[in-house]
C-alpha cells in the first residue's frame, strides 16, 4: 500500500493513525517510493525536543533540484514546468518546459561555480517574480549553495542586515522590477545595501527593466552574457539529508529577523506530499499560487512542491489590481488554472470591487481554491466560495508557517469536508495540541489554547542561522518538549481547528508577518522620537493594520505633527520596507508601563481597536493616568 495520496476520508484517518503510531514507517515509505536518492537513510527520524535537535532521513544522500527536474525528463521533458505571466498583460507569457528548465538551471549552476560559489556558500537572491528567480534558486540547490531569498520589496537596510547575518558571498539581482504601473530600482537598492556588506564578492545582474544602473568594476556583472557562454552540462552535488537548503528570514517578536534554516530531505518530502494531497494534484493540472517567491509560500508551493510532483506552476510578476481588478481572473481563464492558491487579504481587496470584474471570466477550469497566511474571515470565505469557486471547488484553508516548511493543518481537497474559517484537521504526520496557561495539554473538544506541535515533522526548520539558542528559546521553551507556534487556536466539537491569531508580538498585515519590535527600533531612530509602541488593529482589507503610539523628544514637541507622521513612515519604509508603514500614529506623552518597565501592550491593543470595555488588571501599572489620556486622544 502506498501512503502518498489519500483517496477518501476513511483512508485519511487510517493514514493519520499510522503516521502517529508508526511515524518512521509512514514517512519512510513515502520517502522511499516517491523520490530519487543516491543513498537511503539509517534512521527516518532522530530528535531531542529539549535541545531542539531534529534530524530526518539521517545519512541519506539526495539532491532536491534533481528531484525537481532531472527525474522528470524521461517522462515529461516537453511538459511545461513553469508558465511565466509578465506584469504587462501585452507582453507574451513564457512556457518553460522541464527540458528547458533543466538547461537553464545547469547553465546557471555553471555560472555560479565559475564565480567561485561552492557547497555551503550563501547566495542572496533579490529578484522580482521572473523566471531567473526560479532558475537561481534551483541552481543553488543543484550545487549545494544555500539560497537566501529576500523579498524584493524590502529596503536597503533590511537587505543589508540579512546579507550580513548569513554572510552571503554573492547577490543575484536585476536592474529593476515591474509591479503594476510602478517600477522599482532594485540594483540601486542593492548598491546601497552592499556599502555595509563586506562578505559579498560578486553581484550578478539580470536585465529586466532596461534602466541605467551603476556597475561596480570587479564586483558586478550582467548575467545574460555569462549564461550564453556557459555549458548546459552540470553535475549535481550529492547532498546530505541535513545539509541546509535555504535560509529564509521571518520577523520575530524581538530584535533582528530570524534566519530560519531549512534542510534538504525532510523539506523535500514534506512539501511534495502536502502539495499532492492538499491540492489533489493530478497530471496535467495547472497550479497557480499568487504568493511571492520571497516568502515561504512561494518557496514551497510555487517552486519545490509543484516541481517535485512534475506539475506546471505559474510565476506571476504583477499585482491583482493591474491593469485592472480582473487580472487574477483573466489569468485563470487564460492559462486554464486548475488550482488557485491565494491570501485572504487579496480576496478581501478584490471582493470590494465590482463583481463584474470576476464575472467576465471563465473560471470553470478551477477544481480547488486555497487560502494561506492569516485567518480567513467568514465574509471573504463566502465570496471566494461563491464567486471564484462557483460553489463547486473545495476551499483549502491551509495553516502553516515559515518555520514549518509546509502545510500542517488543512483540508485535503475532495476528502475532508470543509467548514468556513476552519483549517480543519492536521495532515498525517502532524500532531497538534492545545495548551493552557499552566502549560498543560487541553484534552477534548470545544476548547481554546496555545497551538503547539508535539512530534517532529519532516519540514520543520532545524535552527536559526547562527543562533541555535534563540531557536530553542523561541520555539521549544514556552512549552517544554513541544514546538510552540505562537498562534492561538480553538478546536470545535468534531476536532476541527480554527486558528484565531498570534498570541505574541507579531502582527500579520496583508498576510505579511511583521514583528513590532523591529518597527519600533526603526521609529526610535528618528531624531525627534523618544520612544514608541506598535500594536495591530483590525482592518477590513489588510486583516490587521499597524497603530503606533509615539513619545516625542523635547525637540520634536514643537514640530508639525502631520510632517512628523510622514517622516516617521518614510523612516520605516527606508529601514524595513513600505509594507511596515503605520496606518495611524498618535503622539502621546507616555506609555502604560508596568513597574518593571514593560509596556503593557494589551491595553494599547484595546485602545487601538476602540474597545474600552475591559482593560483587565491595571493595578501593576506605574502610570495608570496615562491610559485615559491615550484613550481620549485616540485617532
Ligand atoms: C498565520 C505563511 C490562520 C499564522 C505560510 C502563522 C494563518 C503565520 C494561516 C505564519 C491560516 C498562516 N489561518 N492563520 N490558514 N496561515 N497563518 O511564516 O499566524 O509568513 O503563525 O507563513 O501566519 O506566517 P508565515
Give structural notes:
The protein is of the alpha/beta class. The chain has a domain of 124 residues: ANL, C-terminal domain (GMP Synthetase, Chain A, domain 3), CATH 3.30.300.30. It contains 20 helices and 30 strands. An eight-stranded mixed sheet has the order 12-11-8-6-7-14-15-23, sandwiched between helices. α1 packs across α2 and α7 crosses α8. The protein is globular, with a radius of gyration of 24 Å. The N and C termini lie far apart (61 Å). 51% of the residues are buried. The model has no long low-confidence stretch (mean pLDDT 95). 5'-O-[(S)-ethoxy(hydroxy)phosphoryl]adenosine binds next to α11, β20, β24 and β25. One of its GO terms (biological process) is acetyl-CoA biosynthetic process from acetate.
Amino acid at each position: 500500500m502506498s501512503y502518498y495520496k489519500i483517496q477518501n476520508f476513511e483512508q485519511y484517518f487510517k493514514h493519520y493513525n499510522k503516521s502517529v503510531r508508526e511515524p518512521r514507517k509512514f514517512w519512510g515509505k513515502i520517502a522511499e517510493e516517491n523520490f530519487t536518492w543516491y543513498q537511503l537513510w539509517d534512521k527516518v527520524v532522530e530528535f531531542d525536543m529539549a535541545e531542539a535537535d531534529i534530524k530526518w532521513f539521517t545519512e541519506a544522500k539526495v539532491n532536491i533540484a534533481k528531484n525537481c527536474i532531472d527525474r522528470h525528463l524521461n517522462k515529461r521533458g516537453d511538459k511545461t514546468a513553469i508558465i511565466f505571466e509578465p506584469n504587462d498583460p501585452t507582453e507574451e507569457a513564457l512556457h518553460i518546459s522541464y527540458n528547458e528548465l533543466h538547461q537553464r538551471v545547469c547553465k546557471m549552476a555553471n555560472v555560479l561555480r565559475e564565480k567561485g560559489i561552492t557547497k555551503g556558500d550563501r547566495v542572496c537572491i533579490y529578484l522580482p517574480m521572473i523566471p531567473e528567480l526560479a532558475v537561481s534558486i534551483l541552481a543553488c540547490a543543484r550545487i549545494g549553495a544555500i539560497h537566501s531569498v529576500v523579498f524584493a520589496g524590502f529596503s536597503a537596510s533590511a537587505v543589508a542586515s540579512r546579507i550580513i547575518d548569513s554572510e552571503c558571498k554573492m547577490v543575484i539581482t536585476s536592474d529593476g522590477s515591474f509591479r503594476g504601473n510602478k517600477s522599482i530600482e532594485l540594483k540601486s537598492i542593492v548598491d546601497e545595501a552592499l556599502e555595509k556588506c563586506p562578505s559579498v564578492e560578486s553581484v550578478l545582474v539580470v536585465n529586466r527593466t532596461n534602466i541605467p544602473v551603476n556597475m561596480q568594476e570587479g564586483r558586478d556583472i550582467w548575467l545574460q552574457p555569462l549564461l550564453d557562454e556557459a555549458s548546459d552540462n552540470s553535475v549535481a552535488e550529492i547532498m546530505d539529508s541535513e545539509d541546509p537548503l535555504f535560509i529564509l528570514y521571518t520577523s520575530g517578536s524581538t530584535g533582528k529577523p530570524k534566519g530560519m534554516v531549512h534542510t534538504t530531505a525532510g523539506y523535500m518530502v514534506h512539501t511534495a506530499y502536502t502539495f499532492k494531497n492538499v491540492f489533489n494534484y493530478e497530471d496535467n493540472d495547472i497550479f497557480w499560487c499568487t504568493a511571492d517567491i520571497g516568502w515561504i509560500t512561494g518557496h514551497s508551493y510555487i517552486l519545490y512542491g509543484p516541481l517535485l510532483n512534475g506539475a506546471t506552476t505559474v510565476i506571476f510578476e504583477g499585482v491583482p489590481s493591474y491593469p485592472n481588478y480582473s487580472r487574477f481572473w483573466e489569468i485563470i481563464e487564460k492559462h486554464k488554472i486548475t488550482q488557485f492558491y491565494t491570501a485572504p487579504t487579496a480576496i478581501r481587496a478584490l471582493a470590494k470591487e465590482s463583481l463584474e470584474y470576476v464575472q467576465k471570466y471563465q473560471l470553470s477550469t478551477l477544481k480547488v481554491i486555497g487560502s494561506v497566511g492569516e485567518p480567513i474571515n467568514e465574509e471573504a470565505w463566502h465570496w471566494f466560495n461563491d464567486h471564484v469557486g462557483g460553489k463547486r471547488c473545495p476551499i483549502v484553508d491551509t495553516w502553516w508557517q515559515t518555520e514549518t516548511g509546509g502545510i500542517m493543518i488543512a483540508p485535503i481537497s475532495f476528502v475532508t469536508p470543509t467548514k468556513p474559517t476552519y483549517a480543519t484537521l492536521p495532515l498525517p504526520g502532524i500532531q497538534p495540541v492545545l495548551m493552557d496557561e499552566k502549560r498543560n495539554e487541553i484534552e477534548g473538544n470545544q476548547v481554546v489554547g496555545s497551538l503547539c506541535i508535539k512530534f517532529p515533522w519532516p519540514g520543520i526548520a532545524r535552527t536559526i542561522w547562527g543562533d541555535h539558542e534563540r531557536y530553542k528559546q523561541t520555539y521549544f521553551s514556552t512549552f517544554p518538549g513541544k514546538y510552540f507556534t505562537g498562534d492561538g487556536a480553538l478546536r470545535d466539537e468534531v476536532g476541527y481547528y480554527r486558528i484565531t491569531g498570534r498570541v505574541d508580538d507579531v502582527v500579520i498585515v496583508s498576510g505579511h508577518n511583521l514583528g513590532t519590535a523591529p518597527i519600533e527600533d526603526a521609529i526610535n531612530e528618528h531624531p525627534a522620537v523618544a520612544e514608541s509602541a506598535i500594536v495591530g488593529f483590525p482592518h477590513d482589507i489588510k486583516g490587521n493594520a499597524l497603530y503606533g503610539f509615539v513619545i516625542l523628544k523635547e525637540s520634536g514637541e514643537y514640530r508639525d505633527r502631520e510632517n512628523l507622521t510622514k517622516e516617521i513612515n518614510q523612516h520605516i519604509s527606508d529601514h524595513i520596507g513600505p509594507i511596515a508603514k503605520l496606518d495611524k500614529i498618535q503622539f502621546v506623552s507616555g506609555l502604560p508601563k508596568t513597574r518593571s518597565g514593560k509596556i503593557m501592550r494589551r491595553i494599547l491593543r484595546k485602545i487601538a481597536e476602540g474597545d474600552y470595555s475591559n482593560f483587565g488588571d491595571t493595578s501593576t501599572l506605574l502610570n495608570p493616568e496615562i491610559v485615559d489620556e491615550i484613550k481620549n486622544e485616540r485617532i
